[in-house]
Write a structure and sequence with these properties.
A hairpin with a 2-residue loop joins strand 7 and strand 8. The chain has a single domain, classed as Purple Acid Phosphatase, chain A, domain 2 (4-Layer Sandwich), CATH 3.60.21.10. Helix content is 15%, strand content 35%. The longest helix is centred in the first third of the chain and has 8 residues.
């Protein structure tokens, strides 16, 4: 199964991002969506699970949960925008992955058998940080992660 992972779009969804997400069977948006039309565009590719980020305001954003649990092939992913707000032990809670955003810095880290994955920011350029998103390939309980640079 292919899972597209995107974050910090801040109201912008580029053609490059949409192209990179093609083939995803589901998409996780880790917050700072910025505009409900971003989710609408992503839903044209695959079902979307999104959380609210610190800049998501207004009536439309109230419908986004602060955290979300996504089940993928008998594995559970915990989605949160700002990892500093994580208030649980992921391994003890039975999560295979923590998906987050906020920092705009892409990161793949394994701790105690749990994947901590930030796809970086797919929105407007910020400082010298890359514009990117992530792809996870799940096969037989294994998770392979890729960061996709959208500036190339």
């Amino acid at each position: 199964m292919i899972v597209g992972v995107i974050s910090d779009t801040h109201g912008v969804i580029s053609k490059q991002a949409l192209e990179a997400l093609k083939g995803s069977q589901l998409i996780i948006h880790a917050g700072d969506v910025g505009d409900p039309r971003v989710i609408e565009r992503l839903e044209q590719i695959a079902p979307v699970y999104a959380v609210r980020g610190n800049t998501d305001r207004g009536r439309w954003a109230q419908g986004l949960p602060m955290t979300q649990v996504v089940e993928v092939q008998d594995m559970y992913f915990f989605v949160i925008h700002d990892i500093s707000m994580l208030d649980l032990d992921p391994k003890a809670a039975g999560f295979s992955a923590i998906i987050y955003g906020h920092s705009h810095v892409p990161k793949e880290e394994w701790k105690d058998g749990v994947l901590y994955f930030n796809p970086g920011s797919a929105g407007p350029k910020r400082f010298r940080l890359p514009i990117c998103l992530g792809r996870m390939e799940i096969t037989n309980g294994n998770i392979d992660v890729e960061i996709i640079d959208l500036e190339k």
